[in-house]
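Hey,

Quick one before I head out. I ran the complex with 1,3-dihydroxyacetonephosphate overnight. Inputs first:
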Amino acid sequence: MKSIALIAHDGKKAELLDWVATHAGFFQHKTLYATGTTGRLISDKLQLPVHCFASGPLGGDQQIGALIAEQKIDWLVFFWDPLSSQPHDPDVKALIRLAVVWNIPVACNKATADFIVHSSLFQTDYQRSVPDFSAHQRRFDPAK
Ligand SMILES: O=C(CO)COP(=O)(O)O
């Protein structure tokens, strides 16, 4: 879970910033991508390096969608606002669709995002504690 896209609509930006700050340690060695305003807020307020794309309404969601299609994003954290309408709603839908098409985890709220952070920390600890983790994985997923 190295490359993470972070996006929040205006009504959810404070919540996303707060959530990223809570998990600052987790984000230390990740490659972060974001739509314009979200990314600038994260880098200004939390001093994390973020690759910023265009603002959402100007095509940022589509740029992140393109990265997903290129398999360069491992996890999409998208705190979209269910209580306000967006002029670029078709772009929002297209982004979430691509995340489903490419089978990457998508967190649209704090509860899910927390769950994924904890599960990924667990997996990392687990990988360290099991000497031959890949053999162990193969038992559960013969494709690996
Ligand atoms: O609109 C957005 C996502 O749909 C977010 O864009 P900004 O991060 O530029 O506000």
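Helices lie at 13-22, 24-27, 36-46, 60-69, 89-101, 110-129, 133-140.

Talk tomorrow,
K.
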